Structure formats: C-alpha cells, structure tokens
Amino acid sequence: MTNATDLQTNSRIHELLKKHFGYDEFRPNQKEIIQNVLQGKDALAIMPTGGGKSLCFQLPALALNGTAIVISPLIALMKDQVDALQANGISAAFYNSSQASEEQQKIWDELQNGALKLLYVAPESLSLLQPLLNTIAISLFAIDEAHCISSWGHDFRPAYTRLGHLKQQFPKIPLIALTATADKATQADIMQQLRIPKAKKFITSFDRPNLYLDVRPGQNRLKQISSFLKNFRNESGIVYCLSRKSTETIAAKLNNSGYHAQAYHAGLSSEERNRIQDDFVNDRIPIIVATIAFGMGIDKSNVRWVIHYNMPKNIEGYYQEIGRSGRDGLDAHALLFYSFADVIQLRKFMQGTPTEAYQLAKLERMQQFAEALSCRRKALLNYFGEHLFEDCGNCDICTAPPEYFDGTLLAQKVCSAIYRLKGTEPLGMVLDVLRGAKNAAVYDKGYQHIKTYGAAKEVSWRDLQQYIIQMLNQGILEIRFHEKGRLLLTPLAEKILFENKKVQLAHILEADEKKKAVAEINKPAATSLFEKLKVLRAVLAKDMGVPAYVVFSDASLKDMEQKMPTSEEEFATILGVGQAKLEKYAEPFLKVISVHQGSNVKPTSKKKRKKTKKGDTHNETLKLYEEGLSISEMAEARNLKETTIISHLSYLFQSVDSVDLNRFITSEEKAAIQKAKETLTDSEGLKPYFEYFEQKMPYWKLKFGLALLDSES
C-alpha cells in the first residue's frame, strides 16, 4: 500500500526530472533504481548504453543532502557530463591530478561549503580526496563503468579494485554500481569486490531496437564503406579498426573519396587526440577512424552509424562500441565486417596472456555471432541472459533471411544430451556424445551408456556444431565461460523438450553460397527545419564552449520539428527541455521555427500578451530602451525573460546605431574584459572568459563587453 511519504517522494522526483532534465517520464528501471538509492540501499544497475544510467545517480544527488561522489574512468567523460549538468542548472565539478592547484583548491572549498551536488573523480585520483571525504556530507557513491573492476570483464582496470574499501569506510552511505556490459560472471564479481553482496540488482533490457545489426563478408571493405556512406552524408559515425596503421590508411582513402575523416589512435599526442575528439563531439569532423579506445569517454548522442572494419575480440566490446550510436533513440546502423583472417590475428594477440583460454572462448562466441544464420538481436540478447522469442525484424538476417527447415527433432536431441550430461560439459564433448564418438574422453566418463549417445551420428561434426551454435544464438542454450565453457539449458529449452515447441534452423551453406548482399535501411532525408535547428544549436554551443548535444540532442530537435511549438509554454513540452534550458534557449529556437513556418506568430510567454507583427518584438524592446528602462524593467514591462531582452539588445546593437550597450556595463568591467581578451587570444566562445573571471561575471555582460570591444576596434 502506498503511503503519504511514498507519494511525496514520487512527486518530488518527477518534479526534479522535469525541472532539471526536461523529461516527463522515466525510462525502464530508472524510477525503481532512484527510489532504491533514496531509501539508502545499495544497487547494481545493468543498463544498455543510451538507457539513462547517469540519471539513476544524478537525480538522487539532487534529492539528497550532501555531495554525490561519482567514480568515472575517463576525464573526457567527466567533463562532458559536468558540462551537461551545468547546462541543466546543476552544480557539479570534476577533480583529477592534472588540474592546477588553484583549481583543485577551489573544488575543495566548494566541497567543504556544500556547494556541489555532484563531484566526478577518476579511481586513480580518489585517494587524493581521502583527507576530505570524512569531513563532508556525502549523499551517495556511484561507480560508473563498474565492469572495469572485474577480470572477467572486457576492460579491466586495476585502480577499480581499490574501491572495495568505500563500503567499509562509509557503510551507511548508499553505493550504486552501473555498467552497460556485464555477463553473469562479471555481475557476481562486481558485487563481491565492491562488498555489496545484498545490493538489489536491476537489469534493464539490453535491447537497442533502434540499432540495425548488419554483418557482411570482409571483402572489398573500402568499396563497401564508400557505398554505405552515400546514405549518411554529413552524419556522424565511427569506423573501428584493429591497428593504428589501418586507421590512418582508411582515413586517408575516405578523404580522397570526398569524405571528411580523421584517424585517432594512441600513437598521437594527447593534444592531437583531444583536438580530434573535440572536433568530432562538436560536429566539425563527421567521421572518426579509430582503434577501440576511442569513444568510451564520449557522450555524443547523434552518432548515426558505427562500422567495425575488423571483428571485435568479444561480444561485450562489440556491444559497447555499437552502443555509441543512436543514443538519442533515433535510427542508427551497426555494420560489422567479418573475415577469418581477423580471427587468426586476434588469436595471436591472446597467446601467452594470463587469461588466454577465457579470451579465446569469448572470441569464439563473437565468431559464432558473426556467422549466425538466425536473428542477430536474439543472439546478442541471449549472450547477456535475455531471451527474445520473436525475430527482431531489424537485422540483416531478418531482412534477408536464409532458408530454414524444421529443426525441432534435432534440437530435442541436443537438449536431451545436455540434460543427461547434467549441464557439466562444453560444446566439444556434447558433439562427441551426439555423434557417438569412440574416444577415451567419452569412454572414461561412461558417456557411451547414456540414451542420447550417437543420437545425431548422421549429421556431420561441422554441421552439428553450427546447428548448436544457432541454438545458442536463439537462446535455447547458454554457455558459462567462467565455468570451463559448459553448456546449460534455458527455460526455452524446457519448452522444446517437454512442450514440443517448434524450432526453425537455417540450412548450412558453403561460403560461396551465402547471401552476397543485405537490405540497407532507407534513411529519410533530414528536413530543412531540422537542419536549421542544427545550425542554431551549433552556433549556441560554440558560443558557450560546449558540445552541441549539451544544448539539445537530435531527438529534441526532431521533437521540435514535429511539434512546431510557437510559445514558451509549448516549448516546455519538448523532450529534454527543463527549466534551465527553457530560459536559455526558448527564444532563439522559437524564432527559427517561426521563420521556417513563414507565419507572423511570434513566441509568447505563459501569460497572454498582445500579439505583435513579425519584427515588432525587437521594436517594442527598442522603445523601452529609448525610454531609459533597465534590463529587468524591460523584461517586466514586456512580460519576457531577461535573457530574451538581452538577446533583443544584442540584435539591436548590431542593427540600430542609437543603441549603446555601454549603458549596461561599467568602464571598469569593459577594461577587465579587454585584459581578458588580450590573455585569451586563441580561445573561442564565452566559456573561457566565464572561467577567467571565476564565474563571477555573467555571460550577458561578457557578451556585451566583447561586442563593444569588437565594434570599437
């Protein structure tokens, strides 16, 4: 039964969701995870990339007293998230060893004064904060990319293993671990190492239905890529390669073909890598050709495609990399080129490593995914323990399916053999038993006496192996890599054994018989309004010194395009528009929409006011300026936001000789801005100036001062 306190909590978190993040509804599991944290309980959240993990600790941080300490692996990721939080009117900062001592001291002061709601820190830098942690109010600990703590995971980082002490040092503070990629072994290891054995586990669907999954033979890859990119002109995308040399070669060839691409790899200087990454985030470079290290720290929402030039070494890595596309929920395309040469090269990389057998098992599973003859989404989700019973209709297999046959009887034989082997044996032994192999491994264990021994002896070893792989991909079977690769039955297998559920298997074809082409998604061309909104977004982002998606995601722009808001009240209903963004951006975006519509309807505030003809809104402000009113007085008289009046005055200063911005800024302030301009000679946008003045001079004064200096020069 819901009590009054629960109702108040629900009302409060919904209010924070709309005010700061601009959303009306939570995504799956977000609300439950947030409520769990607000109750002071630990949690493990497994959510797909783009599923809204960050909100699960950012919103509780706003609702609770104190500062949330967020452990995150990459500085670039911290900066992007802090920029996005600050754009939403939330006090946040990041801390690392590369910052100047003055900047670090400023963060320490803000922490001690309780001025920060969230502080991001890398695991390697957490020890630097230890003297301070016991002296401040901490609301929660959030461990992002938590799979990095586990040697079972695909991106193990030793510094993460030291995070287990947090629960010992602060037993009463809730700890939430979050990741997008963790199989069952990794999940268990995360909980054990972080010492949160009783944490509630929240597993959101790994399904990203907006991603089209596509696997093609690895012949003539550059020719295929060039053809593929014709459908994605000026759209952001990433090409992943195995080697540094490949990134440079492919980037050069793409540039020669008329595309704008940059190579990215660890051999470049940190300054060069930062520049390339910044250009990509800010839409100055549409294509990055990179090694797999690229993208982990990027929260860019409008990546429309990801190409794997070479096959990844495991499904976790593949899933994380394709997850960097379509984070705004719009259609995206994940293309993987597969060749056995890649498999051989990856095997060489793994030879002699401490976890060689484990890595090889995961590589084999990746290879099985690439060779799948049934719905790829089923195979992908099954790997993470999630079972999809219907074909997805959004992968190359579903859009160009192979020839199937009724494989129910064969599937029953395979399931029966695994059942009689008590789920203790790997694929090789299951094959030997089904084909009636007469070898020592079978005879020593007495498996020649079980009922299913030789039950599929008429099927060749290779074909039977492929059929079992199809059953793995369909979610009928499960493989436990961390338990010597043993095969287990899933609930779906029980329906096949005991309820005679039908199974469709694909005929095994020779390589030269396999389909040569698959359907591509026909992407609708962006409308002119969407392009205009993107241009405005880019201008505003450059002015503020932040990535474009921090202003608005593509999904928000699409929502504007669809809803065509004409007032601030209507603009507030747009996806991603919270209170801070409503005040900052309503006026310029509504103006673009109004001009595009070719109407005389001008943006109106929530309170009704007399309509004005197109162009009259600036003239109304000009009249008030000529009467000598201040900015606040003009805003009150016109029932507009002060930010709107400031925008009008900036426009009028450029177009009307009688408007002088010196009225709103002192000579001392202008002189200080002049000095800052001489210091920040290579800086773009207003943000460097804002930071130069330690955030004490507002953006509008900086804008006015620079405009005056430019006009005088």
What does this structure look like?
- Mean pLDDT is 83; it is low at 510-527 and 599-615.
- Strand 15 and strand 16 form a beta hairpin.
- The chain folds into 4 domains: 4-203, Rossmann fold; 211-363, Rossmann fold; 404-508, Winged helix-like DNA-binding domain superfamily/Winged helix DNA-binding domain (Arc Repressor Mutant, subunit A); 528-712, DNA polymerase, domain 1 (Orthogonal Bundle).
- The strands form 4 sheets. It has a 7-stranded parallel beta sheet with strand order 3-4-2-5-6-1-7, sandwiched between helices.
- It is of the alpha/beta class and 713 residues long.
- Helix content is 46%, strand content 11%.
- It has 32 helices and 17 strands.
- The chain is elongated.
- What is the assigned CATH homologous superfamily of the largest domain? P-loop containing nucleotide triphosphate hydrolases
N- to C-terminal distance: 70 Å
Shape field? elongated
Beta-strand percentage? 5-15%
Give helix % range: 40-55%
Rg over CA atoms: 29 Å
CATH topology category name of the largest domain: Rossmann fold
Extract low-pLDDT stretches.
510-527, 599-615
The SS-based structural class is alpha/beta
For the record, the count of structural domains works out to: 4
Order of strands in the sheet with the most strands? Answer: 3-4-2-5-6-1-7
**Mean pLDDT, rounded to whole units?**
83
Q: How many individual β-strands? A: 17
How many helical stretches? 32
| The CATH class of the largest domain | Alpha Beta
Known CATH architecture of the largest domain: 3-Layer(aba) Sandwich
Largest sheet: 7 strands, parallel
